[in-house]
Amino acid sequence: MNAPATTVPAPDVLGEPEAEPTRVEPLSSAARSSTEERAPGALALQWATVRVLLMRDVVRFFRQPSRIVGALAQPILFWFVIGAGFAGSFRVEGAQGLDYQRFSYPGVVTMVVLFSAIFATISVIEDRREGFLQSVLAGPGSRLSVVLGKALGSSAIALLQASLFLLFAPLAGVTVASLDVPLLVTVMVLSALGLTGMGIALAWWVRSTAGYHAVMSIVLLPMWVLSGAMFPLKGAGPLLAWVMRLNPMRFSVEGVRRALYGAEASLAVGTSSSGAGLEVPVLFAFATVFLGLAALSVSRRE
Fold first, then answer.
1. Any idea where the ABC transmembrane type-2 domain is (predicted)?
2. Model confidence over 23-56: pLDDT tens digits?
């Protein structure tokens, strides 16, 4: 006996009515202009890169108390100890009564700027090792903005440390009447920018902090010693005198000395008059050249 046929209800082919597709209205011209105004421009992106790198270095400096203490302790000890050691034997012809502490004070101020700026650029090696700079370079900022951000951050740290040491200027015989603040600020800023540019250019090629310290000791220490910071140009031999005249750090030391003691006092301590008035142009060229070299080094493809 055959089983009764089972009737399967046919599916509702019509089903529910399909929903109408959502129509996207095009943005009006006012909405488009508002969106474009909210998007940051190229200049704003460059400035944001500079500002972030600058503030990062400054904040990191204040979070390391040992660096703040060392920023003051090292130059003070150097100035007093070296000054006391040379006090009995230092003589400059035509500047009787000048003690070594007063003579060496501008050189120590420049030393603070020099070593602070260079040691601050060691962070370039550390940031590359940790991958931070690679992420910054992959951002919208240009290579030049990265260099300017690192240079301004390192220069700000160097100028802060030098400003703290300048509080001891009255002990070095500096008076308000002889102080030239615009010249002092200009010379220190240009010196810091040039030295940080040099440090960034070298740090980008050196892979380790130990190698960076070795290169800096070979390059920067002789530059500072032969700048007129420890002994006057007048007392140097002919060959050494020419090296000192071509040394850009000489213009930094002489600029600080002229800003602190005046032009007449600067000549009295035995410095050459050939560089008087040329400090700012030479240091401006020095800063421009080394910041440009730093930008070229950072642009190098690895």
1. 66-301
2. 545 545 544 544 445 656 777 778 888 888 888 8
